Structure prediction request, 370 residues.
Amino acid sequence: MRRSVFIFVALCLLGVSARADQVVLKNGDRITGTIVKTDVKADDKTKTILVIKTDFAGDIPVLWDAVASVVSAEPLHLQLKDGQTIVGPVTTSNDKFDVSTTTTGEVAASKDAVVAVRNDAEQKSYDDTVYRLQHPRLTDFWSGLLDTGLSVTRGNSSTLSFTLAGKAVRQTDRDKISVYTTAVYASDDTTPPSRTTAHAIQGGLRGDLNVSDKVFVFGFTDNQYDEFQHLDLRNTLGGGAGYHVIKSENTTFDVFGGGDFQQEYFSPNPPDEPTSVTRKTGEIVLGEEFDTKLNGRTTVSETASFFPNISDTGQYRFQFNATSATKLKSWLSWQITFSDIYISNPLVGLKGNDLLLSTGLRLSFGKQTF
Prediction:
């Protein structure tokens, strides 16, 4: 009876072993388990590892160059350098992969020609990711930030200053959507009556579409309100084309140009401007945008836009924004921001320049680097 049980258990173990994948290394070691995938080595991106899932040791990574032979019980997906993918159980001999496909029978490929190996589950995950990248939904790939700055005094003085800026970006290899807003508010209650000393809001939407690796087209709408310029609304609709001068992992630098249509609505500013003022003009759009990652913690972003007026020649607008942010945690940074908005033709008696310097915390989400 005991002998029969022993034989039964042995046969079961042999059956499990027969159904498992076998990986033999060049030093003679043998690993039994389930081949999961090939991946890059965490501390050396130039080296490839093969991941084998085992029952008792978990996932074991081995260098791809150290693999002598492979025998898989279940189908594997072999991605080749020429873009083909071969699917089926795999055996190896003399640095050749022999794949038993269901469509074309036995197919051979050299080990050097294989750029990726995946089991069914990993291949499905990979396909889903690639499809999502190529056919993203509008709700996919969003990243964003929220910058805050606050200053409060109480006692012999009673003042409040608050800045808030938000930006959300959805970026793929093909296009980019940016939504942004900035608000500034300050008040002084030291002596009655209470006075508002700053109140401005800006927000907009911009879409970029890559037509090649270097060239893109864009469209945008921008809205501004500034109580102390008596600006009730400045609405701008425009578009144009741009060029990716630098487009690397850590640095991007774009230049762009185009045109826009602008509508401005000013409230009265007695006695110099006793009635409201409306302006509708066309402008040229010229600008640049620069973003760089200085190190693992600090990023710098800067944009400058120049708007010469073609309906009222000689007049123009200028906008400049620069921000530096240093990470405290993956989702939390300390930021400092400088902004300059200038118009050459403010209402009579008012200044055309508005400067802002603020610092505070930044909250961020998503994978986009800001």
Observations:
- The two ends are 71 Å apart (CA to CA).
- The first strand starts at residue 21 and ends at 25.
- Residues 5-18 have pLDDT under 50 and may be disordered.
